Amino acid sequence: MTRKAKQPPIIRKKADQMSERWAETLQDIYDSEINFSISTFWDGGFDWKLGDEMNGYKAEGGTFTFGEAVESLALATHQHYPESLFHLDREEFTRRHPPGSDKADIEKYLAGRA
């Protein structure tokens, strides 16, 4: 069994910050009720898809790193869902989707989590 060499603290800290940013990005897309997937197979890189099998895919692509997959997925989400909470800040989202509108429920849900 081989073990990874221990990373210096500065590299470990940067990796942790990047991982946290990627996790937050994926959670924000999910919280906006936008479907997506990221998959990998062996050494073929990462495939990402925006959408789902049932409703169709709006965009998809392939990258060599997980970080690139998350960034590509985020960019596609901004392009294809300009009215989403993911794309707009909370204030603008609430202005465009006042209480009582279908999308206002997302804001209520997220406000309870903050």
List keywords for this structure.
three-stranded antiparallel beta sheet, alpha+beta, 114 residues
Protein described:
The mean pLDDT is about 80. The protein has four helices and three strands; from the N terminus they run H-E-E-E-H-H-H. The protein is globular. Helix 1 (about 10-30) packs parallel to helix 2. The protein has one domain (about 10-40, about 65-114). It is of the alpha+beta class and about 110 residues long. It has a three-stranded antiparallel β-sheet with strand order 1-2-3, with helices on one face.
Layout of secondary structure:
Blueprint: H1 9-31, E1 36-40, E2 46-52, E3 56-63, H2 66-80, H3 90-96, H4 104-113
Antiparallel strand pairs: 1-2, 2-3
Terminus-to-terminus distance: 43 Å
- Number of separate domains: 1
Largest beta sheet: strand ordering = 1-2-3
Rounded radius of gyration (Å): 17 Å
Low-confidence stretches: none
**Averaged pLDDT, please?**
81
Strand content: 15-25%
Total number of strands: 3
Percent of residues in helices: 40-55%
Total number of helical segments?
A: 4
N-to-C SSE string, H for helix and E for strand: HEEEHHH
Instruction: Tell me which oligomeric state these chains represent.
Output: single chain
- How would a crystallographer describe the biggest sheet? 3 strands, antiparallel
Structural class by sheet pairing and helices: alpha+beta
Please state the overall shape, judged from the principal axes of the Cα atoms.
globular
